[in-house]
Amino acid sequence: MDMVEETGPVAVADGIGSADTVLDPADVRRFVLDRLAADDYTGRRVLVLVPDATRSCPLPLLVGAVHEALAGRATALDVLVALGTHAPLGAARRTALVGGPYPGTTVRDHDRRELTTVGRIDGSRLAELSGGRLTEGVDVTVNRAVLDHDVVLVVGPVFPHEVVGFSGGNKYLFPGISGPDVIDVSHWLGALITSAALIGTPGTTPVRALIDEAAALVPAERRALSVVVRSGGTDLHSVAYGSAEESWARAAEVAAAAHVTYLDRPVRRVLSLVSDRYDELWTGAKGMYKVEPVVADGGEVVLYAPGIRTISHTHPEIADIGYHCRDYFTGQWDRYRHHPWGVLAHSTHLRGDGTWSAERGESCRLTVTLATGIDEATTRAVGLEYRDPAGIDVASWLADPDALVVRDAGEDLYRLRT
User: Fold this and answer.
1) Which CATH architecture has domain 262-416?
2) How many CB atoms lie within 10 A of CB 328?
3) pLDDT tens for residues 342-398?
4) Any signal peptide, and if so, which residues (predicted)?
5) Domain limits, the chain
6) Spatial contact of 22 and 230, defined as CB atoms under 8 Å apart
7) Is 86 helix (H, G, I), strand (E, B) or coil?
8) What gap in Å lies between CA 391 and CA 280, rounded to an integer?
């Protein structure tokens, strides 16, 4: 590799592409090589954070370019899969995810047994960040690999997200490689605000502010290659490089144009043909999150995913808690506060908006129906409706003017124009 003059850490992001373009992989590779060559990585230890297989992203292209740019310059170059609340991949799936092998580079899953505490957000500050919704402080725990590296480089996509508004950036640290405390607090804050109010919200939401606050406690420098992926594939609309915050912000602007579809009026029914990248309801529920805003009161969302045969690989608690609206939990908080808050949040996100009172019980705005490989008894036991997936006729749904059929559901958001 030719010698380059390094200019010091990058703060303000720059990038290539837009929501209306599809980038040539050669241009993406050259952008990554040029930007990393101009930044100060020589002699430093670099930890690369990447998403798992539940996010569409051309990781072999991106990680390959990062390795090409930094191998031989960085004294250590390691890749960590930011699992967040998801199940580990294992060696074979990791290799398929990122490509390689990459000489001199380790690729491994985040492991919650490798946590360290980097600080604390006290109760008064959390109250400020959350708009008074949460008042108890939280310890900030994260994979201790951040202490073994000088730079954390996030490499991954930005999509509309039910908890934080838009994914990406510092979210690859929290919840990506964090401990359960920040995961529970951030996800429950999102649930209190509600998924419908947060998803696709531009700028710094309260949950994003909390995540950024936690990330600021990480001693390593934080940078990001934030990409926007063309729907249904791995082509890229854009790529931005800079600080974790600035790179994310630039990509989020593109994602807001590329991954949000606007309807002029609400629909009565939605058939979400859930992407096969999801193998559990815990992640496949994104087929509900991304369409909830366009469904009329009293409407129905059907999640069609015959390949999903389990509710969650890693969170068995949801089978006992079931799916309920936010008010069901807040109205009985003493009963539920000791359950993992991240699980409670997932429950509310899938069930959607609703009300609960001791006198009238629970009333949810929408019906959520599973047409999956999960059996009818299990489906109804967790509070959801059931349809036999073999009986779903996509053609009849397409012919219904009051219905919306979403293919490869889970990444693109649908909203009403007004």
Assistant:
1) Alpha-Beta Complex (3.90)
2) 26
3) 999 999 999 999 999 999 999 999 999 999 999 999 999 999 999 999 999 999 999
4) none
5) 14-258, 262-416
6) yes
7) coil
8) 21
Q: Provide the Cα torsion 80, 120, 132, 164; round to 10°.
A: -10
Mean pLDDT for the stretch of residues 98-116: 92
CA angle 29, 33, 36 (to 5 degrees): 135
Q: Which residue has the higher pLDDT, 4 or 285?
A: 285
Q: Which residues, in sequence order, are CB contacts of 297 under 8 Å at separation 6+? A: 365, 366
Question: Using CA atoms, how far apart are residues 126 and 206, in angstroms rounded to an integer?
Answer: 10
Fold exhibited by the domain 14-258: Rossmann fold (3.40.50)
pLDDT of residue 9: 52
Mean pLDDT score of the chain: 94
Confidence tier at 414 by pLDDT (50, 70, 90): very high
**pLDDT at residue 264 is higher than 70:** yes
Both tokens of 364, joined, read 């949810």
Residue 323 DSSP class: -
Are 14-258 and 262-416 the same fold in CATH?
no
Across 306-348, where does the E strand assignment appear? none
Residue 279 confidence (pLDDT) above 90: yes
DSSP letters along 206-233, please?
Answer: HHHHHHHHHHTT-SSEEEEEEEEEPTTS
**CB-side exposure of 141: number of CA atoms within 13 Å?**
16
Neighbours of 192 (CB within 10 A): 20
